Amino acid sequence: LSLDGIIYISGGTATSASLNGTSSALPANFTGIGTGSYIIGLTGSFGCTTSSVFQVDAYPILSASAFSSSVSCYGGSNGTLTINVTNVVDYLYVNLRDDIRDIYIYEEVDLANFINNSITASNLTSSDYELTIFSTGLNECQYYQTNYTISQPTLISYNVSASYINSCSNAILF
């Protein structure tokens, strides 16, 4: 259970608030809040009181999956990795890296541009790739990392044999 939530109370006609036995003049910050329901007591300037129930929910957990398509011919570069990401809060960063360098980087601050929760890295060669995804929002950072392999068919092999044809067998020699 994470206790890093905050309940902030301000405005209205209330002059003070209480939560879990702690009272504070408004505006009030109650910290160390975990997920769950909380009853907040409010007191007005004439001593009248009321209460309200607030629900504190946890951030949804970042979830990702990917589907790959192999390179169609040996040595080709038409492999793809389609990455589906859900529960992105505010910011999304996706990095696909092979053994040597970053192959594909996707960064999105305006999630309205992140359509259908899916992005595709294309023109991939046969290799092992490390997929890293970050999502942040309101002091929350979530991280997802896994490995994928883009495969390719085996090299076409063949044997060639040649035989020597003597084309001068009927020739007249001088």
Distance between the termini: 104 Å
Major sheet strand order = 3-2-5-6
Sheet with the most strands?
4 strands, antiparallel
Integer-rounded radius of gyration: 32 Å
Low-confidence stretches: none
> How many DSSP H or I helices?
0
Structure write-up:
This protein is mainly β. The chain has no helices and 13 strands. It has strands at residues 5-9, 14-19, 22-25, 28-33, 36-44, 49-56, 63-69, 79-86, 91-97, 102-108, 118-124, 127-137, 140-150. A four-stranded antiparallel beta sheet has the order 3-2-5-6, with no helix packed on it. Strands 10-9-12-13 form a four-stranded antiparallel beta sheet, with no helix packed on it. The protein is rod-shaped. The N and C termini lie far apart (104 Å). The model has no long low-confidence stretch (mean pLDDT 83).
